[in-house]
């Protein structure tokens, strides 16, 4: 299998409904929204995310900040992901996938 690379950008608007109760006064983008963006990017290639093999959330993403999402196929059943804001690694890990 030749290496497949998918890239996207993400930015959660400061008005997103989930932020109202997520650390009031200093909201952070919840990890579940980052994982939802990851799942959505995989779906564009006909892959369904089954679960996380490994995930590290290393820095917060604030509402309105832009981040790059990159995923690289390891094999037919796993992809490695990185979410990066400027020069800061926000999250990384591996996901298990299956055809949608």
Automatic annotation (TrEMBL):
One GO term in the molecular function aspect is: lyase activity
The UniProt entry, under Gene3D superfamilies, shows: Hotdog Thioesterase
Q: Please indicate which superkingdom the organism of origin belongs to.
A: Bacteria
State the Pfam families in the record. Answer: ApeI-like
Q: Which residues form the ApeI dehydratase-like domain?
A: 6-87
Q: Which InterPro entries match?
A: ApeI-like, HotDog_dom_sf
Q: This protein is called what? A: ApeI dehydratase-like domain-containing protein
State the organism named in the record.
Metallibacterium scheffleri
């Amino acid at each position: 299998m030749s290496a497949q690379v998918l890239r996207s950008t993400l930015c959660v608007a400061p008005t997103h409904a989930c932020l109202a109760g997520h650390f009031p006064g200093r909201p952070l983008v919840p990890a579940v929204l980052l994982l939802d963006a990851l799942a959505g990017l995989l779906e564009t290639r006909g892959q369904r995310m089954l679960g996380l093999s490994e995930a590290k959330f290393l820095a917060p993403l604030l509402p309105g900040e832009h981040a790059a999402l990159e995923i690289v196929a390891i094999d037919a059943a796993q992809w490695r992901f990185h979410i990066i804001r400027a020069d800061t690694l926000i999250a990384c890990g591996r996901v298990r996938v299956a055809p949608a």
